[in-house]
């Protein structure tokens, strides 16, 4: 299809498609004339992926570029892909250098929780630092969650993660490179957007709980 | 205390404190001389709140300003405060105007879920739009979660929200305006940072599930 049709079918304006092409988010089409190119279904799918990550996932253009490079790298397996996407999503937090007691206590709490849950997690996993930084900030502001509350969250999310991850790759390997990319794209969307689903549901549940107690 | 001590005790550089004062995030100190002011424990607490929201919560300065105005408004009750904070956190998503079938189906799915859960939620709740937009994007990319998966998330988060919201206000009203502000600040930090805790735990649980299946 030509760019006009790609724009109509994706709902993305032509100027925006050109921006994605310039930024390297969208691979170039097949040239059909000096100033024309033809686009396929894979361009349409990629456009929907970019839009979902940008608009609903609030992921930056730079991070999307990093994520798409992983999606397009055929040598990366599912486990490595998940890790690379998590790493790209950040946030990039650095431990304080001055031996902050809140950070140290939070780090021990995070390590203990991971070990209590029996989770297999790399020492340098960015989510471990995110958990530590968040628990440290909660301690600093006097709003640290109870150990029981943390365990309840961890148990609930662990059950959900197992079934979600199991659905990332169907039985057997994808037949073609194109099928592998389509699968990886849907895994990425699932990872990023399910976080937004969880946040939305948590806020709705909170509004309900607050309406019942204080409304 | 003088600004130097406020900086040392909070770990926030003097230039940053001056920026927060200019931006209206931090209330001015009590003037003690033409170029000096004195700061109290409430300034220290407020600084820790700003830092937690900015650095760990990744909340923008503009959004923090909106949130702090709600925290400082004595006429706002707990339920209104929670709503105002949720609304400030966004994202601000607008439904498509062209009758997008994915959006319409996602909106029905969100409404059905809220009604199945028996949740009391305002029609204009931003979390309702966030849920609809996310489900619509997942549908567009062919990665929509199953109804059973959504319900499992909702059940788990509902249980957690009830106990979290119950802890927002201790028995009886806070004694003084200062105590009320301290309480509201800790509620805001809890709301924003517990979302980050959940995201961190979900990513850790995912890494574990992925290591076991594909690692």
Folded structure, characterized:
The structure is a homodimer of 215-residue chains. The first copy, chain A, has 215 residues and is mostly helical. Helix content of chain A is 69%, strand content 3%. Chain A has nine helices and two strands. Chain A has helices at residues 3-10, 14-23, 41-56, 61-72, 78-89, 101-117, 126-140, 147-166, 177-214; strands at 30-33, 36-38. Chain A has a two-stranded antiparallel sheet with strand order 1-2. In chain A, β1 (30-33) and β2 (36-38) form a beta hairpin. In chain A, α3 packs parallel to α9 and α4 packs across α9. The radius of gyration of chain A is 21 Å and the shape is elongated. The N and C termini of chain A lie far apart (54 Å). Chains A and B meet through α3, α5, α7, α8 and α9 of A and α3, α5, α7, α8 and α9 of B.
């Amino acid at each position: 299809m030509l760019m006009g049709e790609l724009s109509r079918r994706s709902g993305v304006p032509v100027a925006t498609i050109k921006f994605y092409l310039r930024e390297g988010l969208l691979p170039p089409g097949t040239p059909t004339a000096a100033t024309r190119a033809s686009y396929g279904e894979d361009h349409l799918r990629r456009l929907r992926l970019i839009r979902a990550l940008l608009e609903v996932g609030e992921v930056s253009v730079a991070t999307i570029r990093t994520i798409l490079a992983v999606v397009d790298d055929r040598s990366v397996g599912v486990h490595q892909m998940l890790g690379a996407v998590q790493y790209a999503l950040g946030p990039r937090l650095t431990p304080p250098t001055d031996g902050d007691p809140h950070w140290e206590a939070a780090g021990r709490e995070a390590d203990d929780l991971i070990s209590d849950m029996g989770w297999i997690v790399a020492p340098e996993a960015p989510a471990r630092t995110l958990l530590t930084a968040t628990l440290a900030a909660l301690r600093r502001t006097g709003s640290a969650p109870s150990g029981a509350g943390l365990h309840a969250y961890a148990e609930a999310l662990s059950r959900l993660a197992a079934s979600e991850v199991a659905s990332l790759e169907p039985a057997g390997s994808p037949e073609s490179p194109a099928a592998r990319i389509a699968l990886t794209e849907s895994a990425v969307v699932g990872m990023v957007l399910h976080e937004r689903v969880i946040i939305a549901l948590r806020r709705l549940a909170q509004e309900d709980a607050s309406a019942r107690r204080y409304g």
